[in-house]
Amino acid sequence: MINKSLLDRLAALDTNTVSDALDFLGLPGATVGLRPLWNCPKIVGRASTVLLAPKSDNVPTVHLITPVVEQIDSDDRVLVIAGGIEGISCWGDILANAAASKKVRGTVIDGFSRDIDGSESIGYPVYGRGVTMISARNRVVQIDAAVTINVAGVDVSENDYVIADTCGTVFVPSAYIEKVVDLGERIARRQDGMVEAVRSGRSVAEVMHDTQFEAIHVEHA
Amino acid sequence: MINKSLLDRLAALDTNTVSDALDFLGLPGATVGLRPLWNCPKIVGRASTVLLAPKSDNVPTVHLITPVVEQIDSDDRVLVIAGGIEGISCWGDILANAAASKKVRGTVIDGFSRDIDGSESIGYPVYGRGVTMISARNRVVQIDAAVTINVAGVDVSENDYVIADTCGTVFVPSAYIEKVVDLGERIARRQDGMVEAVRSGRSVAEVMHDTQFEAIHVEHA
Amino acid sequence: MINKSLLDRLAALDTNTVSDALDFLGLPGATVGLRPLWNCPKIVGRASTVLLAPKSDNVPTVHLITPVVEQIDSDDRVLVIAGGIEGISCWGDILANAAASKKVRGTVIDGFSRDIDGSESIGYPVYGRGVTMISARNRVVQIDAAVTINVAGVDVSENDYVIADTCGTVFVPSAYIEKVVDLGERIARRQDGMVEAVRSGRSVAEVMHDTQFEAIHVEHA
């Protein structure tokens, strides 16, 4: 219940605001380079992590990622995938269809996706580094899941919070989500007020002077 | 006649499927990074290759690529261009207009294009690494054509088959096109069946288990 | 008055043509990699330059760029920003609102922007290297303005002319603008004529032969 509520509150923010809240708290979480691979909507949810690695032999194995999708039993999941190979796909349209039918909210890949039209055609959001047509088959395997992975320089653990929109992808450790959302809401209100002030003709130098913005600290303390 | 038919069959596939067929046959052909430079349609055709190189003197010469466009006398051509310089254009709108009037199906550049709005305005597809405004004039010259060139790591010969769509660009040597199309059609049917199975609620882990997919080999053998 | 007229004439050209004019005159000015960060219209105007640098201490300071926006008192300005950090934003939606209310024509960044939806929602054009959500706050400071800065390899001075469109961004020193516009208009006419010639069925090899194009030199001499 509290998590659902936190998710809804997180969903009302954007990545810029969440990144600012992390900054104020001295926490990592913002990533550069993981952006929408089609013109897809924002996703907000909790991470189901998958760790991939280059394949080291030719024995057929269980297909990567499918066991993770299989076990999903809540409607708040975002698949977060790390460890692939540059230019090789970690995500395609069979997986997108399977994830969509499990009500997964979207996929974030520190890597590439293929079949991107297939994900778009069913409205399934995919964020990542780029698009390719080259299959993971016989190139990439899954070596672990539900563990802490490194995504574009940020450690992401199972159940961490994820927000992804036009500006990129941000992760929030579950231990900090309440603080981050509280602060994010305050930053969003202030930011909205600053935009209003500027639109109504107030000096932007005055509105954006750091003494104004740093006041968040005082307010927050 | 048989080529026309193979082209039509190739045109019914996508780059993901053709790349998978090449994988099964152990052939190269898939490239990373050569993507649509405007929101352009898929192109399928046979390569007319052009090899460029940095200009080494200041003597005016015949304009690059124009002699190749000039000599085209069939309606199945895709211009495939390699050997340019990073950030310098190899393709502009006069060439696009000339190619369109010769019924060329599109251009794939291991490099950059300029005047991209001009190509878009006449609906001429251009795939490549990026867009610039800097002219090839006095910077890049054509050194050969109708020869084997290296495009994003793949050797492409005159008359090789080309398919390019949202996911990128794939080349198929003419000697293998029948095998690749046969196998691609089988893969496409299987892929469609897998998406259907997943949509109808079957376990994705079961549907995508490698034993299922590797069955293509048996079927093909 | 004469400047206004030159600006209008520049606005009738595109970056490809202006880059060609600079080439003929042996001048730098064309850049690679500074492209629209949303699907924004062409901008043409005169540079107000801003030089940023990584922050070296934690003392709160005046917010970067705001003093420059504050002092703008004409309707021909384009903000041109250099010296940021890879992956860190130099531009957001409060600044976009402030700039829009000052009738600034757009922003070109040798770097990144955040809040890009905010700029898009008010129709404010932003060109640069990419999008991020990470704030400049406590990471980047303004160290100078209205000075000569280096933008993607090109020196840009206060009041230089700027043109940016789908193909990228080009700068023209004010001392050369008349020559560049004169020559650009002649190139544009010739280019239009070449497209017409090709469309009407003339040989593209003949139309684009360098002797044709180099005739611009003679005409210009």
- CATH level-4 homologous superfamily of the largest domain in chain A: Ribonuclease E inhibitor RraA/RraA-like
Shape of chain A: elongated
The CATH architecture of the largest domain in chain A would be 3-Layer(bba) Sandwich
Structural class of chain A: alpha/beta
Q: Per CATH, what is the topology of the largest domain in chain A?
A: Glucose Oxidase, domain 1
CA gyration radius of chain A, whole angstroms? 19 Å
How many structural units, i.e. domains of chain A?
2
Biggest interface, CB < 8 A: A-B, 30 and 32 residues
Percent strand of chain A? 15-25%
The level-1 CATH class of the largest domain in chain A: Alpha Beta
Helix content of chain A: 25-40%
Largest sheet of chain A: 8 strands, mixed
Mean pLDDT across residues of chain A: 92
What letter string, H or E per element, gives the SSE order of chain A? HHEEHEHEEHEEEEEEEHHH
Describe what this molecule looks like in 3D.
Three copies of one chain form a homotrimer. Chain A has 221 residues and is of the alpha/beta class. In chain A, 36% of the residues lie in helices and 24% in strands. Chain A is built from eight helices and twelve strands. Chain A has two domains: 28-172, Ribonuclease E inhibitor RraA/RraA-like (Glucose Oxidase, domain 1, 3-Layer(bba) Sandwich), CATH 3.50.30; 179-220, no CATH class. The longest helix of chain A has 23 residues, at 177-199. Chain A has helices at 2-11, 15-25, 66-70, 93-101, 116-121, 177-199, 204-207, 210-220; strands at 35-36, 43-54, 77-82, 107-109, 112-113, 126-128, 130-131, 140-145, 149-151, 154-156, 161-165, 168-172. The interface between A and B is medium-sized, with 30 and 32 residues.
